[in-house]
Specification:
The structure is a single chain. By secondary structure, this protein is of the alpha/beta class. Helix content is 47%, strand content 17%. The strands form three sheets. An eight-stranded mixed β-sheet has the order 1-2-4-3-5-6-9-10, sandwiched between helices. A two-stranded antiparallel sheet has the order 7-8. A two-stranded antiparallel sheet has the order 11-12.
């Protein structure tokens, strides 16, 4: 059965190549790269290419008493100061797996084997499941480190962001320090607006293009990050502890807590009462209304971390990807980004799939997945054309 699966995957890759064929080197390289990205079947790229050289580099200074954040650099065997190559910065989301996780290593290694310089930064903050505005600066600094490498062609450097990392990638691409140097951005599974995303996690629903609420079940990680963010908005320790004790377990379990009028009356701060209302919102309307009533500092953070509110600063071409059955970030978030970009010339591609578990490959039914694999190959090829 395993052998038949492998043979089927090889035939499928060949079929995908024929369907999307262009007599170009990039088209061929993309097709051969696909098994590495999906971790499916034999990987001919590993046989016919040289292993890249990797090293760990500091890209952001340490906080007092801490250690510097490190990034993993993957240099293709063919890249040198005399023959600089295109490059990609890979940015992952909150509670990510880290730059040395096998899945991330597989993707970085595959890209580097095709001839792309790859940098994968780690962030202690994101690894802890927290999101701060300072993470945008972290992406900028990692990009600057990558673009300054002598083996890198500075005219062919882009950013690939996964999940929340996609949102950070878009925000960093608009930073004045690097905006004119970022050639392209690919955001995979990103949220457009933190307020609509938080409301979706709170209410277990999102709005379609007509504004109609659609039932949706957020992942355990989405619920965990959401709960932590909500509790962080409450400065009073007693209020925060009361909310966590009353609703924390239910939110993490995927339940929809019911409001507690007695507890709400005992809360001493407006922020705590607003968070109470949000954690117990019975509808998407109520969740959205509660978010608008958060403290000013919270709303400023939401504004600062929402790429759709800062797209005017982005000069690079933007590529969007999203899984239509994504339960970490609703796919309509990427649709909102696409709609906001569609009036200009920056939207290079917007592709929706049914292939992934959020941003990681799902179990593939080879026959059923063939049309989706074609879409994936065509999308990835547009990125490879930018970098190779």
């Amino acid at each position: 059965m395993r052998r038949l699966r492998r043979i089927g995957l090889v035939l499928l890759v060949l079929a995908v190549l024929l369907v999307s064929w262009e007599p170009t080197r990039v088209a061929f390289q993309t097709a051969v790269l696909l098994p590495n990205l999906l971790d499916a079947g034999p990987k001919p790229l590993n046989v016919f290419s040289e292993a890249p050289v990797r090293s760990s580099l500091p890209y952001r200074a340490a906080e007092p008493g801490g250690e510097a954040d490190l990034a993993e650099l993957w240099l293709p065997a063919s890249a040198s100061p005399e023959r600089p190559a295109g490059a990609m910065l890979l940015v992952f989301g909150v509670n990510n797996l880290g730059r040395n996780h096998p899945a991330i290593e597989r993707v970085a290694d595959g890209l580097a084997r095709t001839g792309v310089v790859v940098l994968v930064p780690d962030s202690a903050t994101l690894l802890e499941g927290r999101l701060e505005l300072g993470e945008i600066d972290g992406v900028v600094r990692a990009f600057q480190l990558l673009a300054a490498r002598p083996e890198v062609d500075r005219s062919r450097v882009g950013i690939v962001g996964f999940s929340v990392g996609g949102s950070l990638a878009l925000l960093a691409a608009g930073d004045e320090r690097i905006a004119e140097r970022v050639r392209w951005v690919n955001a995979f599974g990103a949220f457009a607006d933190a307020s609509t995303y938080l409301a979706s996690v709170a209410a277990h629903a999102y709005r379609d293009e007509d504004g109609t609420p659609v039932s949706w079940t957020p992942t355990p990680l989405a619920r965990e990050v959401y709960l932590r963010f909500m509790l962080d908005q409450v400065d009073d320790r007693a209020d925060r502890r009361g909310l966590e004790n009353a609703f924390g377990a239910a939110v993490l379990a995927g339940d929809r807590p019911v409001g507690d009028a007695s507890l709400r009356g005992d809360l001493t701060t407006r922020a705590a009462r607003t968070v109470h209302d949000l954690l117990t919102a019975a509808s998407l309307d109520r969740a959205e209304r509660s978010i608008r009533q958060l403290p000013r500092a919270s709303l400023e953070f939401i504004d600062g971390i929402s790429p759709i509110r800062h797209l005017g600063d982005v000069l690079a071409d933007v590529h969007l990807m999203h899984e239509t059955q994504d339960h970490h970030v609703p796919f309509v978030e990427s649709r909102a980004l696409a709609a906001a970009l569609d009036g200009g010339e920056r939207l290079a591609a917007h592709t929706e799939f049914r292939l992934f578990d959020h941003v990681q490959p799902d179990d593939l039914d080879l026959i059923a997945a063939a049309p989706e694999l074609v879409k994936l190959l065509l999308h990835v090829r547009t990125l490879m054309e930018e970098a190779l």
